[in-house]
Amino acid sequence: MNLRLAGQGAEGDPGAPRGNLIVQVLVEDDTYFHREGADVHTECPISMTQAILGGTVDVKTLTGTVEMKIPRGTQVDAKLMLRGKGIPHLNSDHKRGNHIVHLQIEIPKQVSKRQEELLREFDEEMKHSGGGIYGRLAKAAGSAFETIWS
After folding, report:
1. Quick check: 46 and 74 in contact, CB under 8 A?
2. Contact at 8 Å (CB) between 46 and 28?
3. Would you state the pLDDT for residue 81?
4. What single DSSP character describes residue 88?
5. How many CB atoms lie under 10 A from the CB of residue 19?
């Protein structure tokens, strides 16, 4: 991006006005923040437990660190918005873009025997309670059978 500062450049011929100063601004990519217009995007890892039960995480913003609430039942590829925590709009003193936080649910690569037992127990409970994917599949299969055999 180039900025033109009128009359701030080198002196012209005697009696002529000063020239313009052209400033070239180069912005390096950041490893944490990704800019899209006035909005800033970041990724935030959360645990499986935080996704299911909810909780809080600290998120680094352009103006410092804030505590962000993770809602109970957060799904894969969820995005949360911190309004007004993005980049200031040009020619506006108070208006700022947003900070969009992309939640990344981390799935453990290894679990202990006890964790595996608990996860299998949780899975069985979900099957029997009709929750999660099992409940939706059972309802869909049931309604499909009713349609076919009625």
Report:
1. yes
2. no
3. 97
4. B
5. 13
